[in-house]
């Protein structure tokens, strides 16, 4: 199935917004040489926001907005590639334990964030209640 040009544009525009937001966050609070706390926080908060996306009636009603906000903004905001690069740098510095803790901690925290949002969020109303 080929996505519509409208959805592709929505994801692209949202991705640009998310990528700029991620870049700005790392410029304001740069990751240090150890545990990359800013990138970690970006990935955990982005995972939580992605899990909460369906709580927004706009995203539930509009495939275009869902695409722009989900894979677009939040996909551009979160970054597994930066996590991998930080882990590679830690490994190159001989800090294998910290690299493992960083990658494992990032994955665990993101999964925990998604689970908590799913459990704390109220039950979604039926479509006809929107």
Global geometry? globular
Order of helices and strands: HHHHHH
Low-confidence stretches: none
Domain module tally: 1
Straight-line N-to-C gap: 28 Å
Nearest-angstrom radius of gyration? Answer: 17 Å
Got a strand count? 0
Beta-strand residue percentage: under 5%
User: Main beta sheet, described?
Assistant: none
Number of helices: 6
Helix content: over 70%
Structural class based on helices, strands and sheet pairing: mainly alpha
Overall mean confidence score, pLDDT: 91
List keywords for this structure.
single chain, 75% helix, mainly alpha, 6 helices, 130 residues
Describe this structure in words.
The chain has 130 residues and is mainly alpha-helical. It has one domain. The chain has 6 helices and no strands. It has helices at residues 5-28, 37-52, 57-61, 63-77, 80-92, 96-120. Helix 1 runs parallel beside helix 4 (63-77) and helix 2 packs parallel to helix 6. The longest helix has 25 residues, at 96-120.
């Amino acid at each position: 199935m080929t996505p519509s040009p409208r959805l592709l544009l929505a994801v692209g525009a949202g991705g640009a917004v998310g990528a700029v937001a991620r870049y700005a966050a790392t410029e304001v609070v740069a990751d240090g040489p150890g545990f990359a706390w800013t990138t970690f926080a970006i990935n955990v908060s982005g995972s939580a926001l992605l899990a909460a996306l369906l709580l927004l009636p706009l995203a539930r009603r509009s495939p275009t907005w869902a695409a722009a906000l989900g894979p677009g903004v939040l996909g551009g905001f979160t970054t597994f590639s930066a996590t991998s690069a930080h882990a590679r740098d830690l490994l190159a510095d001989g800090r294998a334990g910290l690299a493992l803790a960083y990658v494992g901690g990032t994955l665990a925290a993101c999964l925990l964030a998604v689970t908590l949002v799913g459990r704390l969020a109220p039950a979604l109303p039926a479509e006809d209640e929107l």
